[in-house]
Amino acid sequence: MQSQITPTASVWSTSADIPSYAPLTTDLRVRVAVVGAGIAGLSTAYMLAKRGFQVAVLDDGPIGGGDTGKTTAQVTCIVDKGYAETAELRGEDGARLTAESHMAAIDTIERIVRDEAIDCDFARMDGYIFLASGDTPRTLVDEFEAAKGAGLRDVELLSAGVTLSDVHLGPALRFPQQAHFHPLKYLAGLSRAIERMGGQIFCGTHITRVNADAIVTLETTDGPVIGADTVVLATHMPINDALGYSTRIRAALTYVIGLHIPKGSLPNFLAFDTADPYHYVRIQAEGDHDVLIIGGEDHKTGQADDMDQRYLRLERWARAYFPMAGEVLYRWSGEVANSFDGLALIGPDIVSPHVYVITGQTGIGMTHSTIGALIVADQIADIPNPWAELYTPMRAPARSLGEVVSEGLNVLSQYTELLKGGEVASEAEIPAGSGAVVGWGPTKVAAYRDDQGVLHRRSALCTHLGCVVTWNDSAKTWDCPCHGSRFDSYGKVINGPAPADLSRAEGERGTR
Ligand SMILES: Cc1cc2nc3c(=O)[nH]c(=O)nc-3n(C[C@H](O)[C@H](O)[C@H](O)COP(=O)(O)OP(=O)(O)OC[C@H]3O[C@@H](n4cnc5c(N)ncnc54)[C@H](O)[C@@H]3O)c2cc1C
Ligand code: FES
Description:
25 strands; Rieske Iron-sulfur Protein; D-Amino Acid Oxidase, Chain A, domain 2; eight-stranded mixed sheet; binds flavin-adenine dinucleotide; single chain; 512 residues; binds FE2/S2 (inorganic) cluster; alpha+beta
């Protein structure tokens, strides 16, 4: 579907002084190589460098160019599945360790901000879960009891509702001691600290292959090879998928708008409603006004084409609750990696013990990534970690088996696309600045017509496991409906599990 609404960059993109780093140009031998310069990779490299490990971080984009640059950076222990469901899926001990690790992650971020004097708008505040219209108060009562049971003793049930300035959100749970920050300013501070401690950072360096031998080698698009005793894959979606991480994670796109509100018209707060998918809310100061940030409208990656409607629904929702909301200043989207039990997958790879992963961080990747860094840094230093077992990637899918099966069926059904025609009958139907899948079967082509009218053709088969990609006219990307790989308009891979760009197609460039 043709998109009429043009998204903007995220609210963070122009307000951080991000250091830039050159690509790797020669072979490198290092003790620990960390792939990914988002919050997971940089936090891990920071903690390892602090312990005296020689580290190198490699990323194919700039610092924070992945989903950490698109996050809303609520720093919270309010887990996606809630504590009632977490206790059901992982037991009461599991729920307790979940709460403990997330609260420790908030403290860790605060401590790093203080120790490194990172000016990143970090602030503590209350977080709320409030009832979505149509949900019964019982939902909140159950979650209240489960949160208390998980050790979050200060959580409060506000049956009469929560009022923030003139805004009434209805019955809610209050979680004290949550936080928010500016994610790119935080990453900039981590990068500088890593460098100061002797760590190296290389941007513009795409890793194409991980060879997990006694010394792990990483191959790059431009040739240099990295040898490391230990590798941490902090690429959000793992790039070595031989072990099937992609079948244990459901990738979803989520949408955000930022609305102008008068400065100080709302206090700092975090909020989530009980809808599925949920809405999420925070405030960010900007110049002479504040920005009310609202997100939600998630859907499985590659399985929707009504992005304009999603932005409009978010705006309607925002205006229904927040009468002071003015002009929409920002609209952006990004991807979240949802594990089936709502907890990240963190630790040594199942069959390659020198390769560690941090993935499946769900919608609360600030804390999950920080927990990932704490666990992996301990594991590499051979120090026992109390949360390692909870988050191990080796765990069975617990009682979320039904969800695993239904996800498997959803993926299988995507392959029937190979038996159907393309999104348009001919390339002539593709307007400038847009794309579509054309043709039949395995010869399907992902055709993008640039603003000058030139057509760029790539194979439409995802380089992960061969599903047919779909055109996302809002983000101008090719999205894979199977396991969430994304490619730019020209077929260059943005994120895995696909290891490589979309393959060349016949007549790669043209004007038809
Ligand atoms: C719109 C939105 C709102 C969100 N809101 C919140 C929130 O309020 N609170 C919260 O806690 N979480 C939130 N999340 C989730 C959170 O942002 C993510 O979980 C988190 O940023 C993931 O961090 P990461 O470091 O794993 O990934 P990324 O930031 O994506 O970093 C991974 C890096 O790996 C690099 N990379 C990938 N493949 C390769 C390769 N082959 N070679 C070299 N480099 C590679 C990428 O370029 C990227 O820079 C939100 C996410 C989105 C999209
Ligand atoms: S992401 Fe798995 S086939 Fe595309």
